[in-house]
Amino acid sequence: MTQPPTARSTQLGILAMLGAAVTFGLQDGLSRLLAEAYNVLSVVTIRYWFFALFVLAFSASRPGGIRVVAHTHRPILQIFRSILLITQICTAAYGFTVIGLVSWQVIFASYPLMIAALSVPFLGERVGWRRWLAIIAGFAGVVLALDPGGEIFGVSILLPLFGAAQFALYCILTRIAGRVDSAETSFFWTAIVGVVAITLIVPAAWNPPVGSDWWWMLLLCLAGVGGHFLLIKAFEIAEAGVLQPFAYFGIATSAAVGYFGFGDTVTPAMLTGGGIIIAAGLFTLWRERVVARRTADKG
Q1: pTM more than 0.85
Q2: 53-77 pLDDT per residue, tens
Q3: Distance between CA 207 and CA 234 in Å, rounded?
Q4: Which of 51, 100, 111, 256 has the greatest number of beta carbons closer than 10 A?
Q5: Rounded to 5, what percent of the chain is helix, strand, coil?
Q6: Shortest CA distance to 261 belongs to which of 92, 47, 26, 20?
Q7: For residue 236, what are the contacts with CB-CB under 8 A and spacing of at least 6?
């Protein structure tokens, strides 16, 4: 029987989540560095090969091995959500090079608000008026961050909004899959379907790193594996509702890398809008946790 998390395990879970978030933020910086010099598909493919090897090794170590972990009740859903994630990662890697990490992350931070809104039609969940106000306020922050009258506004600035929508839908589909499949099963399908899909496409645009850039590629792969390992550990020892708000540290890390490492532009509208988006997202996550606790108490 699974034991409820203790105060110490919750603290360790938060530390692991922070480690994962920061690692993923650094991974974004490495993705941009390589995607600016090489084809995005090549960079994502090599990263996914490494990721798939990690997932195969992880799955083999679980009770029952790969055969048990790979068993799914919703194969079509697992395939679709996995392809959706790989396309979102390509959108992100390309977006980093076009608009920079800061602009991307400020607007991408709206994805929890999209998840809350999509949970109504897709999951049949009830979203109260407080969360709807937070969602509306968050999207007002998105409009402000986009700064339609500003110098950096253009069609490309809409890329992070598209990427956030892709990721939000992926999260919704993952929740649906979670009703019948374990998290380990979804993790397995995410890696294997993703690596097969990207490997089939990449020959048309193969442009691998050369020389010392392979060290950056290796660091990117290690960051991806390390981040996922910390993420798995975090969710093993602490509640998801407690951990989710700390994912924003990854967004902050990525934006900081963009500003200090690549000299990305930061505008007052971007900072103000980003602050509104993050505040609305944190409030939405908090209200979701409160409602979940009330429902559990009534049950």
Answers
A1: yes
A2: 999 999 999 999 999 999 999 999 9
A3: 35
A4: 111
A5: 80, 0, 20
A6: 26
A7: 13
